[in-house]
Amino acid sequence: MRKKQNVIISIILTLMLALTITGCGGDSSSAQADRTVTDCLGREVEIPDNPQNVACLYATAAHMMAMLDEGDKIVGCPNGVKSDVLMQMKYPGITETATPHQEGSVNAEELLRIDTDLALVSYSLAASEGEMAKLDELGIPYVVIDYTTIDELRTAVKVAGDVFDKQDKAQEYLEFFDDTLTMVDERLADVDMKDAPSVYHSVNEAIRTDPEGSICGEIMEKAKVEDVSIAKGTLATGKNAYVTLEEIYNWDPDAFIANEYSVTDYILSDSKWSRLTAVKNKKVYTLPVGATRWCHPGSMEAHMGVLAVALQFYPDRFDDFDMKKYTADYYESYFGLELDDNTIDKILAGEGMRASNSPVQ
pLDDT by residue (tens digit) across 295-308? Predict the structure, then answer.
């Protein structure tokens, strides 16, 4: 009888030990499966240790993933990302991904369909309690990766590096970012802003421009040009600053720069703009377009935007500088793309770098 009792006690102890080990193992597995990162809003977010299905509900997040060589994990992104030629080159399947966020609305069913385990969102989307409630209800963690200034852009790159455990690669990118800004600053060090050309910047549309405090305004300042809409005090405010043609005529800038080549063509060809000094002198230029539009509020390539604007207006300061090689080296080093001369020419001309949402042939 005692022997039988001993056997029973032994079995119970074995089961208890097994359960204890399993429990400890489960806790350890859980600890390995999740970790905490701090996003661009200062939120501490628990995310999967190695997210596999990432929904980029903001274009820049997808471009940062590409820089970190994590783009193969993108299962959803904006249509604009799908039309980026360099994104198509690096990730041909990007055109087949879902679009779970359109016109400010999150599509919960689509996020479920693509089995999203992490979402990357913008400031504006994070500010919408209703839209974020959808993610909370689905149990999908979200990280805010966004910025409105160059310093915030640096932080956003670091956050992206933390999310994908690619801190070294993110830091390497930031070092190149700062090296480029330093190089431009040194070459333009003795430029007196009183003599700087006045420039109007068209952001995607002819009458959309830079408001005070924008990252594009910082780009212009670092390139030593006067951003006329900021300097003269545009009546428009907010992220999307729209002005009138009358305001532009009052400013009569020395030059125009646009980050969309069709806008350049429009300004040069439409008679309503023909009496402007810059149009008469044919000083209307298109900014480069690479992984992103180099001078755009959502561009992660602000450093390249500074370089391009400086080179456009101070070519004598860069007469020994090979912009084509610099651009080619940049995309090879930080996006893993070996681009031919024709593609580099298109990037620098700002034309032909947005395609239809179909794979590159």
Answer: 999 899 999 999 99
